[in-house]
Design goal:
Order of helices and strands: HHHEHEHHHHEEEHEHEHH
CATH superfamily: Uracil-DNA glycosylase-like domain
Largest sheet: 4 strands, parallel
Radius of gyration: 18 Å
CATH architecture: 3-Layer(aba) Sandwich
CATH topology: Uracil-DNA Glycosylase, subunit E
Number of strands: 7
Structural class: alpha/beta
Distance between the termini: 40 Å
Strand order of the largest sheet: 3-2-6-7
CATH class: Alpha Beta
């Protein structure tokens, strides 16, 4: 059986034949989300969220990708940490909470209208870029770890957790993360440059991983939207300008 990876196909197929040799970018992402699962063992009190097991969330994510990615153009890859509970952990779309999904992307949502500060920053930046159509026509946002993580405390309350927050968790997710990044590239992402959301642990991890695996020619770090909205919100416009400068 011949497996034709997306980035190989771009290299060998004339532009006029892309529709023949490639499925739509949205179809590839939707299949990835539909089939996404983790079979490893996580440390105690850590749980992985998979929103795509909920039919409504999966259908919502499909509608988003069908709206903005129904073409065969390659995209530039932006990698966050892992999905949060109020953004992709709810809607299935990275850095897109229900408010942004409905009010800006114009898609329907039947659940609670949750608000995620990181989503606010990303969509303010997207507006400055030229709007969702212009931005998503060139960029594809995903995460180093494709599924969200939560940690349960002694009272049973769950809070967002990052893949790098413990060595044991990082080790448990290593193969999953490597598979994920290679697969995101094969969906149709360019490899000359990748952008990393976060200038500290996420960037350090991704840089070390890239030095070993040679996924990308270079990695450009950007301040994480959560950091900006939590500590630098009064300077938000200057951070948006920095994003646009680095992305363009």
């Amino acid at each position: 059986m011949l497996i034709l990876h997306a980035h190989h196909c771009y290299a060998i197929c004339p532009e006029i034949n892309l529709l023949i040799c490639l499925r739509m970018f949205s179809d590839r992402v939707n299949q990835f989300n539909r089939d996404l699962h983790f079979t490893g063992i996580l440390p105690e009190n850590i749980r992985m969220m998979n929103p795509y097991t909920d039919p409504q969330v999966y259908e919502t994510a499909c509608a988003f990708y069908d709206k903005y990615y129904r073409d065969v153009r390659p995209r530039r890859l932006i990698l966050g940490i892992n999905p949060g509970r109020l953004g992709a952990g709810t809607t299935g779309v990275p850095f897109t909470d229900p408010k942004r999904l409905t009010e800006i992307c114009g898609l329907s949502w039947q659940g609670p209208m949750l608000h995620e500060p990181s989503s606010v920053f990303i969509y303010d930046m997207i507006a400055a870029f030229g709007g969702p159509g212009a931005f998503y026509g060139r960029y594809y946002i995903h995460s180093v770890c494709p599924l969200g993580l939560v940690r349960r405390n002694a009272t049973g309350r769950e809070t967002n957790y990052n893949y790098f927050d413990s060595r044991a968790l990082e080790a448990a997710l290593q193969d999953f993360i490597e598979w994920n990044i290679a697969t995101q590239i094969d969906l149709g992402c360019e490899t000359e440059t990748a952008w990393c959301l976060g200038r500290s642990k996420n960037y350090q991890y991704l840089l070390a991983l890239n030095n070993r695996k040679k996924y990308f020619g270079r990695i450009v770090s950007l301040d994480h939207p959560r950091f900006i909205m939590q500590y630098k919100v009064k300077e938000k416009e200057s951070y948006i300008a920095d994003y646009l400068n680095q992305l363009r």
